[in-house]
Structure formats: C-alpha cells, structure tokens
Amino acid sequence: MTVPAHLRALLALGLPLVGSNLAQMGLHVTDTIMLGWYGVPELAAVVLGAGYFFILFILGSGFSYAVMGRVAASLGAGDEVQARRDTRMGLWLSILFALGVMPLMWASGPILRALGQEPAIAALAQDYLRIAMLGMVPALIIAVLKALLSAQERTQIVMWVTLAGVGLNIGLNWLLIFGNFGAPEMGVRGAAVASVVVQLVTCAALMVYAGHARGLRQMDLFARVWRPDWPAFRAVARMGLPIGLTSVSEAGMFQASALMMGWIGTVELAAHGIALELASLTFMVHMGISNAATVRVGRALGARDLVRLRDGAWIAQLLSLGFGLATVGLFLGAAGPMIGLFLDRTDPAAPEILAFGTKLLAVAALFQLFDSTQVMALGLLRGVHDTRVPMWVAAGSYWLIGIPASWILAFPLGFGGVGLWFGLVIGLACVALSMIARFWRGPWLRPAV
User: Fold this and answer.
1) Is the pLDDT assigned to residue 252 strictly greater than 60?
2) Which of 130, 190, 253, 429 meets the CB 3.0–4.6 Å disulfide criterion with 177?
3) Where does the chain cross the membrane (predicted)?
4) Cα–Cα distance between 371 and 3 in angstroms, integer?
C-alpha cells in the first residue's frame, strides 16, 4: 500500500471511531455542563462520582480491547470462528466483572470520605453512583460490541448510535436534573438515571445490529452464548486484564489528582473537572486513531504482512502527533471561552473557577504531546498482542513517578493545583517515551527466521 492509501484506510476506519469517542465523551460533558448550571457542589460531586465509575469501567473495558486486537488478527487470518469465540467470551468476562464491582459503587460514600473528601460532596457522589452502577453491565457490553464492530471495520454504526445517545442524554438531563415540564427535580440523581437509560438503549441497538445486520448475521454471535468456551475465555482474560490494569493505571493517576485537588478546595476541584473534561475531549481523538491503528496493525499481523504493519504504524503515529500540536494552540489561545461554557456566570464562584481552570489548561497544552504519543504506542502494542510489559511500565510510571511528583509539587513545594498537573505531565512523558521505543524495537517488526 502507498502512503496515501494507508492514510485513507486509517481515516476511513478512525474518523467514525473519533466521532464515536467524542460522542461518548459528550455524555459526560453534558452531565458536567448541566450540573455546573445546577450548582457547584453538584458539579464537584459528579466529578468525583463519574471519575469513580470510570476507574471501574476502564478496568473492565480491558476485555473489549483484547477482543478488538484478537478479532482483528483472526479476521486478518480469515478465521471468523475464532473471532466469534473471542467476542462471546469477552461478553462473559465483561458481565462478570460488572456484577463484581457493583458493591464498590454502592459503598462509595465511606470510601470517598476515607480518601479525604468532604462528607457532603462524598454523600452526593454516592447518591449518583448508587443509580449509575446499574449502567455498568450495559456499558461494558457496549464496549465489547464496539470492539467487534471496529475490528469488522463497521465503525459508522457505532458513531451514529452513540450520537443518538448524546441527544437522548441531553433531553433526559433537562427533564430530570432541573425538573422541567413537570418531571421531578433530581439533581445528581437525575443525571445518573439519564445515563443508565442511555446505556440500556445504546446496548439494545448495538445488540440488534451485531446479531442481525447483513454480513454479520451468519456470524451467529448470540446463538448459545451461555455455553462456555474456556480456551477463548482464558485467552481473552490473559490479554484483557493487563490492558485493563494499564488503562486504570493512567485513569487512576487522574482520579488521584482529583482526590488531591479536593484536598485543596471545592473551587479548585470544580475547575480541575472542567479542564480535565476538555483535555479528555481531545484525548478521544487520539483514542479513536489509536483504536484504528490497533485494528490495522492487528489485521496486518494476522496476514503476516510486515510492510503493511510497519507503514501503517508510523502513519498513525504522525497523524496523532499532528492533531496534538493543533490542540496545543487551541488550549493556549481559547482557554477562557471553553471553560466559560461549563459555568453559570451569575454564580459567585464562577470567576475563581474560570481563572484557575485557565491555568490548568495551559499545563494541559503541554501534556497533549505526551498523551497523544502514549495512547498511540499502547494502541499499536495491543495490535501486536503485547500487553504485559506495557502494564508494568504504565503502573510504575504513573504510580511511582507521576502521582508522587504531583503530590510533591502541589504540597511540599507549594505550587498547588498547577504543580499537581505538572506531575501528570511527568508521568505521561515516562510512559510515552518508554512505550513508543518498545513498539519500534519489537520483534513483530522483524522478519521471522
């Protein structure tokens, strides 16, 4: 394949995934914006509650990423039977995981208080999570089905279904958070109910498509889905658990930063949540390109096409880096207007949140470059089924370097929330440089002897 052909193939697969990721993120952004209009304590609570949910979700979603890589390789080798087996066991593992973590969400209030959060904010976050936990099973099923459809290069349906979910979420939030048109005013509980409904509807839509769409019907995905396939179960678990732990290492670093920001103050925590939402939106673009790279590299691996694997990898890396550079300019040039979208300007705390959030986005501009590199490197490594070493590198970089650096800069050295974010940059840089070097030096880029 020529360079333009690689680029077209990557964009054809990746752009709908970017759209889907942005739409998925839009669910959380709309919750943040609308609860920011409702009140600062509610905004701070949903920052904690959604972060808590996300930590558990991202750990369980490792099985879906394993499905994506394994199914792409199986389809590249022409083995649709193995693709079906892996997908079914990915569904099994995801459902079992979701059921297992529900007690952690039910008892989230005491856990958050033990982590130093204000009792009133912890109680609101628990109210949110005791409803939101009902959406964990459908959310993880959605992740596996998205992985299957992405590996099948059917990404547009994923994007359109997710976009429809954003519209439904906005409408339900308007009704249930604020109590419009005679609906009960539920605040954070209303946001949680809206999220669960959206997850159930999205899950049902993707299940119908995966089971009955032309070209997928013969796969017979859900026939006898209750029957165990232990070899596939173990294979997906062995690959998926390290991916989940790698992802949760990064997500855990950001959640730990939210906890530490909560020690500084409610205004700082609210600003942190807004800045992190904006940074996460741009991260979704990198994630979409990374997922497309996983599929492209996985298919090349299955077909044993070394040239296509190598060329596709460096084009994906350059594409993600280019977007990262564009984002740096956006964060430096338009921080105030973007943060203002999340605030009720009549709120007395709004000017403080705006000023502090602008400083955080300036630091976020710096870590865009490292974030784009690390997520692309991990996507490429998943495509070649390399997950164990990345898990240990990520855990060490984030938890032994990034989090301690954040704490030292924020508290002993007195740089506060801005220093805390510089610690995040240090952790991301360690992972980015280590993982991209690992991919380009790996045995998968050398001809088999």
Assistant:
1) yes
2) 190
3) 47-68, 89-108, 128-145, 157-178, 190-210, 318-343, 391-413, 419-440
4) 25
Q: For 182, which DSSP code?
A: G
Banded pLDDT at 89 (limits 50, 70, 90): very high
- Cα distances (angstroms) measured from residue 247 to each of 31, 62, 244, 256, 433: 23, 8, 5, 14, 17
CA gap 367, 361 in Å, rounded: 10
Distance between start and end Cα atoms, the chain: 24
What gap in Å lies between CA 317 and CA 158, rounded to an integer? 23
Q: How far apart are CA 96 and CA 78, in angstroms?
A: 30
pLDDT digits (tens, 9 = 90+) for 37-65: 888 788 888 878 888 898 899 999 999 99
| Residues ≥6 apart with Cβ < 8 Å to 229 | 85, 88, 89
CA-wise closest residue to 257 among 363, 331, 391:
363
CA 270 to each of CA 25, 266, 334, 354, 423: distance values in angstroms, whole numbers, following the listed order: 18, 6, 19, 10, 19
Report residue 248 CA to chain centroid gap: 10
Contacts of residue 142, defined as CB under 8 A and 6 or more positions apart, other chains included, come to 199, 202, 203, 206
Residue type at 339 in one-letter notation: I
Q: Which residue has the tokens 């800069």?
A: 409
Distance CA 62, CA 41 (A): 32
Tokens of 68: 């994506």
